[in-house]
Amino acid sequence: MRASEKMALIDRIGRELHSRFSFREIDAYLREFQITTAGGSWSSKLEYAKASLHGEPTDRIIAIAEDLDLENLHAEFAVSAPPKNWIGTSKFRLFISHLAKQKDRAIRLKECLVPYEISGFVAHEDIHPTLEWQLEIEHALYTMDAFLAIHTLGFKDSYWAQQEVGFALGRGVKIISFKMEDEDPTGFISKHQALPRRNRTAEQIAEEVDAMLSVDPLTSGKLKLAKQKNGKAVDDELPF
């Protein structure tokens, strides 16, 4: 969800809380979502509610809007909700694009990224059976912090894989091309130097992915925050 969309949604929620509840009731309602209200003396319930909501995670804001049954919420904002396995997480969100036949490799890499507070999304593992799979992939693409493509033979010929790459390019997120086999990235991402495997283990690749995300201006701040929130030591010295 874009910042402007989130602010508009917070405004809608604030107006709804203003019309329904007293100050005390707003406090009680927001506590149900583990939100500490703004405090202080306020003359406007609208501004008080909005001040209490600013800075809260997007998925929590969406959950409140859904609970309040705001009109047209699905059409306007639902696609920007995270997929099931990212709801409520404060970890860094990495979309891992791969061919279906390579899902075991993608899952293995996802597991090795966990110690770095990086939560991977692997479509063939993370989509719950009761959820529409294409919509859940869209949720992940809209809310990812970065994108990693596992290039194996046939990746460039996969319509789904190329659509995921195109989505990442359109959003302007950090893209990592991981060259697993003898197939180079093609199209617009070919300009990015691929991360080669070179017989390295999944643990070693995960370590390098973490290093790349830690120094890139697009991702370093979010990854550092994820580590701080989850009690990980953060090295403030950038490698030279």
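(the above was protein one; protein two follows)
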Amino acid sequence: MPKTDTLDLIVPTGTGTRAPSRGPNPAAPSATEHPRALLELPPGEARDSLLAVHGVLERELPPTPLSIYEAGGGSTCFLPLAALRRAHVTVVDIDPAQLRNNDYAQSAILGDIQTHRFAPDSFDLVVCYNVIEHLADVEAALEGFCTSLKRGGLIVIGAPNPNSLSGVVTKYSPHWFHVWFYRHVRGEKHAGEPGHPPFPTLFHPLVTPARLTEFAETYGLDVVYRRDYESPRYPEIRTKKPRLGVLLDVAATLLNRLVGGTTDVRHGDYHMILRRP
């Protein structure tokens, strides 16, 4: 979605420069509507899990005005709109094009979430969605999230699982292949252009759900929700490219048998919600 003219783009200095704050969006959707990110998901495990995430947030977040830190964010919002309508959202992103694409944050900062720091106890909620897989120093980013979080605050992380079938393909294939896939299989003609995914993927060890859970325990965080789910790319491919979908399902079934049925290699993504006690 094109960005409105109410956000003045900032220039980089130091760890990040703050844009002028924006007031509440008078055109904010009603609480009965869903964000576009949810509506665009095909029916399946990804959609079910995101709905479950929304349920946890609606139950755990205070009913008062919220302060939200979105660590990396372009045009897509994954938050429940009931929470978004009463929130002041601050987004930090290293890409000016991504900041221009964001039309729901009241404050935008051009900076690196691995090094940018806020005052302690600043936020009720930190959201890092489809971002940590692109970071070289995930631990530094997570430490910043923890420091900025209020008591009882939540961290929502959505990320791909490097140990899944799609994760292994992503990890060991060149970036040009990712761009080709987005353009010719997913049909996104602007894929790879400035401000448009796919972005280079690094897969730091902490991106795996098990290692991320260990990090949470080390920092005294409670894991209040975790679900590994089938990547939405599978139902998407089954619809757009049925023959390719059949081949992927056959390959996944064979791989599941090889690993002894202990996991489903189609579970290419996960959600995790952490809480600071």
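Reviewer note on protein two: The domain at 16-161+200-230+268-275 is CATH 3.40.50.150 (Rossmann fold).
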